[in-house]
């Protein structure tokens, strides 16, 4: 039996003051996705379609869309291009992200899960990343500019 310390999953829940239909667009439309998470996105939002986001210089996430049930549920695979073969590596498509959108009055409750991470170090690293990017999703989907990603640094 696996205990909490051995978890291979990051889960988060946020509430966004926007309708699920609006939040959905920030998950599947290239320009909107790049506003909160990345410099550019290539998204073919259909089962089997490409999910690719240039998050930071040298950090490109790639996977494929698995399930789309607009505007309620989105599942896609995730991993990093150009990662070496190390114990904490997360190769493209090797993990799964599941996002559920549930109406909450005039807002949307977002249940986020990133599972199948290979190690505690990968869980910690991805938790830090999602704790940085999910608030940027909240800001963008509520109609405010999240601004330039501070993780890009001054020279990027």
Give a written overview of the molecule.
The protein is of the alpha+beta class and 156 residues long. The protein has one domain (9-142): Alpha-D-Glucose-1,6-Bisphosphate, Chain A, domain 4. 24% of the residues lie in helices and 35% in strands. The chain has helices at 20-28, 30-36, 120-141, and strands at residues 10-16, 40-43, 50-56, 59-69, 73-78, 95-104, 107-115. It has a seven-stranded antiparallel beta sheet with strand order 1-7-6-5-4-3-2, covered by helices on one side. The longest helix is centred in the C-terminal third of the chain and has 22 residues, at 120-141. The radius of gyration is 15 Å and the shape is globular. Residues 1-5 have low confidence and may be disordered.
Largest sheet: 7 strands, antiparallel
Cα end-to-end separation = 44 Å
What is the H/E order? EHHEEEEEEH
Q: What is the second-level CATH architecture?
A: 2-Layer Sandwich
Q: Give the percentage of residues in beta strands.
A: 25-35%
Apparent shape:
globular
**What is the arithmetic mean of pLDDT?**
92
Strand order of the largest sheet: 1-7-6-5-4-3-2
The helical percent reads 10-25%
Radius of gyration: 15 Å
**Number of spatially distinct domains:** 1
- Sequence stretches where pLDDT stays below 50 over 5 or more residues: 1-5
**CATH class, anyone?**
Alpha Beta
Q: For this structure, what is the CATH homologous superfamily?
A: START domain
Structural class: alpha+beta
Tally of contiguous helical segments:
3
**Secondary structure tally: strands:** 7
CATH topology: Alpha-D-Glucose-1,6-Bisphosphate, Chain A, domain 4
